[in-house]
Write a structure and sequence with these properties.
This is diphthine methyl ester synthase. The protein is an alpha/beta fold. It is built from 12 helices and 12 strands.
Length: 292
């Protein structure tokens, strides 16, 4: 059996009972280590699960799946995934490869950012398409995400923005020279994300992300208990806020849609940088009726 097991969002104890039982039955256990990060070290997972974990980077999962699936028709093999197994298309691909090889597959689900983002107080059924925001470079500033944000905005829906993670990435020079030298891990922060959004708005000029008129919610360490941070404000307020106030990575950002309910605004008010501004923009720009 090939198991694909979600680990949840925080630490070694977030795995489900069913997931832990499956891990203990496996002869090899791989830990996918590039689409997200847990808040604990690999050693703590190994101690809690009672199993040695084999780190599986992007190359292994995407190009060496045969090694991961080796003997999975006669043994139990597991791939552990931070969040939920279907949070990244990579995992769908390896499941399809297993099925094509006639290997039985079982997926064990867990919490992911896609549902845990509800901790910010916005109602999940009011979210539209999720978008990803990558690190800009001097020569590469992809803006296709803006079209998806606009489609959501036209419907009044919220947009979850997932921020870029750079793990085991090579510089252009090392890549060109074929040198297996990797850059230190980088995780996009809220200030970087907001700056890039504003930059694209200034380029597109479609008034979807006007800094002073767009409400947004910054999230970090979602599901992390005491380490979780929620900060609400306009994009302009988030841009001017101290970087350390947003907490440790991973960070996520939500663009609030115009159909926002007054209870959503009231929930976010306690996390607002400026409560008066949060309420005023909700009323004057979003047309949200609030009790005085």
């Amino acid at each position: 059996m090939f198991y694909v097991i979600g680990l949840g969002l925080c630490d070694e104890k977030d795995i489900t009972v069913r997931g832990l039982e499956a891990v203990k039955s496996c002869s090899r256990v791989y830990l996918e280590a590039y689409t997200s990060i847990l808040m604990v070290q690999k050693e703590r997972l190994e101690e809690f699960y009672g199993k040695e974990l084999i780190l599986a980077d992007r190359d292994m999962v995407e190009t060496e799946s045969d090694e991961i699936l080796r003997n999975a028709d006669t043994e139990n093999i597991a791939l552990l995934v931070v969040g939920d197994p279907f949070g990244a298309t990579t995992h769908s691909d390896i499941i399809l490869r297993a099925r094509s090889a006639k290997i039985p597959v079982r997926v064990i689900h867990n919490a992911s950012i896609m549902n845990a983002i509800g901790a910010c107080g916005l109602q999940l059924y009011n979210f539209g398409q999720t978008v990803s925001l990558v690190f800009f470079t001097e020569t590469w500033k992809p803006d296709s995400f803006y079209d998806r944000v606009k489609e959501n905005a036209d419907l009044g829906m919220h947009t979850l923005v997932l921020l870029d993670i750079k793990v085991k990435e090579q510089s252009e020079e090392n890549l060109a020279r074929g040198r297996k030298i990797y850059e230190p891990p980088r995780y996009m922060s809220i200030p970087t994300a907001v700056s890039q959004l504003i930059e694209i708005e200034e380029m597109r000029k479609q008034d979807i992300l006007i800094p002073e008129k767009t409400l947004a919610i910054a999230m970090s360490r979602v599901g992390g208990g005491d380490e979780e941070r929620i900060v609400c404000g306009t994009l302009a307020e988030l841009a001017a806020h101290p970087a350390e106030a947003f907490g440790e990575p991973l960070h996520s950002l939500v663009i609030v849609g115009r159909r926002v309910h007054h209870l959503e605004i009231e929930y976010g008010e306690s996390y607002a940088i400026n409560r008066e501004s949060w309420r005023n923009v909700a009323q004057s720009v979003y047309g949200c009726s609030l009790d005085s």
